[in-house]
Amino acid sequence: MNVDIDESWKTILKSEFESPYFEELTDFVKEEYSQHTCFPKGQDIFSAFNHCSFNDVKMVIIGQDPYHGVGQANGLCFSVKPGIALPPSLINIFKEIETDLNTPFPEDGNLERWAKQGVLLLNATLTVRAHEAGSHQKRGWETFTDAVIQTISDSKKNVVFLLWGGFAKKKGKKINEEKHCVLTSGHPSPLSANRGYWFGNKHFSQANAYLIETGQEPIVW
Hints:
alpha/beta, Uracil-DNA Glycosylase, subunit E, four-stranded parallel sheet, two-stranded antiparallel ribbon, 10 helices, 38% helix
């Protein structure tokens, strides 16, 4: 696996890339991609980082693992490429934005526009085998993405972390809440949203209010 990642991340995560676990992870991912159909495409594995440099991070959204359907995953959590049907969780995210901010439903599900404004769209696991959810979990990706979250928490201040669902909340347990804004709610998946754990969380307006309060540019959702 070629670590094709923005230089700012390559520098600050140097010790991770040089560690034994990452070497084992690299070998595993290379073998999986050579023997099976896996997502996202190889060049998109680190897309979340390449569309949002370390210096630009002002918000982090944590997902679990990439979409495992054909053509869906593009390396950014919850995001799909233009022309791909919106997955149910993303539909619910857009519905909440629509009611929270009174903005129109977007034309497509490509969230690169968020990333370019400083939103790190981070999946806990960066790869997956086609049609096998969770198939690349517990092979090293979680250790790497834990280090990413810890590094952001330790090295930056006034970052907004959006933790949706139990998995993301556990993933964010080491975030320093004294220097960052942590917003939690249920997951936007239909199972959670239809039980009343997602809609009305107003995370998007709250996040922007915090950014403005701390002298940062709000996100154009």
